[in-house]
Write a structure and sequence with these properties.
Elements: E1 14-17, E2 22-26, H1 37-43, E3 48-52, H2 69-82, E4 88-93, H3 96-106, E5 111-117, H4 126-140, H5 144-155, H6 159-169, H7 174-186, E6 200-205, H8 209-212, H9 215-221, E7 226-231, H10 238-241, H11 243-258
Amino acid sequence: MPYTPEHTGTRIYYETSGEGPPLVFVHPPSMGHVTFRHQVDALKKHFFVITLDLRGDGRSEAGEESLTMALLAEDVCRVLDACAVKSAYVFGYSNGGSIVQELAIHYPERVRGLILSGGFADVHTILLKNQFRIGILTAKLKATTFLSNVLSKAHEKEKKHRDELRAYIQRTEPERLAEMYQIGLEYKATERLSYIKCPVLLIYGAKDDYVHEYQEAFKKRVPAPVEVVYVSRAKHQVPTRFSRELNAIVLSFCRRVEVGELVH
């Protein structure tokens, strides 16, 4: 099983497949690399696809350090190093988007293009704040079985995929899950978005109303091109429920970046 080298720090589990420009996917708290099964199957024909388990999730070690977005971004960099990848397209789903934003801000030379599905630069609306608070409370009550049932049913149609995702979510310790939600709630990148130098793609479900307004900060502050795409009929779970549409959007964006169509 591929892990980052032990001498570099907490061992992070990752998987790779395909050939082409590197494309790494970062998942929301507890959901693990299995979140992106539908992306790997389709996009490995065009990319060198990297998926991983964040520290404390899935097969990755938890480590002893207190969690920060900067630490998680550094973990992604260590995965890229383990794969001998100098720069990659980075995709973050939901709260995973905060990690890849931090990566693009602190390590701009490692990011060719930034892709966020249901992304936000901070959490300031009541609806989104409440989503995080519910997650924190659920984790602190150790109701991870309930949470895994809700998340797996919301994301996957097929029973075998629901069962795998449910089991994966339950691997995360409740205390670590609460910590992940807490740093997500407190994360603020709005004032630092000007440090993002690569093209940005924002993907939102057309019915995912409570995050739509977050696109404005990116369009106002990121100096590089910012594109926004709405997926018709979709709510928040675009990577799993509308994978065909999302995969086509990602492929088109990366191809245009590769040929230089999206420049300052």
